[in-house]
Amino acid sequence: MERPVIQVKNLYKIYRIGENKVKALNGVDFTISKGEFCCIVGTSGSGKSTLLNMMAGLEPPSRGEIIIAGEHIEKKNEAKLVVFRQEHVGFIFQSYNLMPNLTAIENVALPLTFQGVPKEIREKKARRMLKLVGLGKFMNHRPGQMSGGQQQRVGIARALVVDPEIVFADEPTGNLDSNTTLEVLRLMQKIVHEKGQTMVMVTHDNYLASFGDKVIHIRDGKIIGIDEHPGGAQNNEVEADAGYYPGGTLAVPGEEINLYENQQY
Ligand SMILES: Nc1ncnc2c1ncn2[C@@H]1O[C@H](COP(=O)(O)OP(=O)(O)OP(=O)(O)O)[C@@H](O)[C@H]1O
Ligand SMILES: [Mg+2]
Fold this sequence. Notes:
alpha/beta; Rossmann fold; six-stranded mixed β-sheet; four-stranded antiparallel β-sheet; 10 strands; disordered C terminus; binds adenosine-5'-triphosphate; binds magnesium ion
C-alpha cells in the first residue's frame, strides 16, 4: 500500500441558517493513498461538494482534521491556503470555468502565469497538455467555439498543466452526454494513473464512481461504505453494466506523447 496522501479525521461541517443547523458533514474519516483514483458518491445534498471543498482548502471545517501531503489544512490561514493550492492541487469543475475571451492555449497556460513561469515555457507546456487531451487542432479556439466535451478537456488540461500532486473534480462530466462522459473519464483516469497523481472525483452516479480504485459512499454527511477495487470495478465486472451507457466509445482521444516530457523546463 502506498503512503496516504490525504487523511480526513472526524470531520464535521455545520451550517447555521437562522435557527436551523445543517450537518453537511457529520463525522467523516477516511484515507486516500498516493496514486489512487478515489470517487466520492452520494445523492444530491449528501455532502460531497462540502467534503471536496474542505479537502481543497476552499472552506474551513467546523471540527476535525484534514492532513494533505503531511500538512494540516484546517490550521492554515487564507494566505497559506493559496500557496498550498498552487503547489499541490488542480481543480476540474462541472461548468468548466474557462475564460470565454481566451483561446484554449491561453486558458491552459493561465495557472502557469500565477506560478510565474516564463511565457515561452507556458505556451510550450500548454501546447503539450492540449495535445495530450486530443485538442491539438483546437489550440486557438475560444470556449464558445468548442463542444462541451472539448471544453471539459481544456478544463482537464488546465488542471493538469501545473502537474499537481492531487486533482479534485466535482461532477466533471455533469454537463456531458454519456459517450463524451466515458471518454472524458477514461482520459482523466489514464493521465492521472500514468503520472502517479492522486485524483478525488465527486459524482452522484454509481456507475461513474465504479471507475475509481476506491469508492467512498456518503449519505447525510456520513460515510456509509468504502469499496476498494484497484483499476476500477468496471474493468472486471462490467461489461455487466454495458447497457447503461449504450454505444459508449471508450477510445481515448489524442496523439501519443511522452507524459513526462513536459515536467522539466
Ligand atoms: N453554504 C451553505 N450554507 C448552508 N447550507 C449549505 C451550504 N452549502 C451546502 N449546504 C447544505 O449542506 C448539505 C450538503 O451540501 P453539498 O453541496 O455538500 O451536497 P452535494 O452532495 O454536493 O449535493 P449535489 O449533488 O446536489 O451537488 C445540503 O443539505 C446543503 O443544503
Ligand atoms: Mg455538489
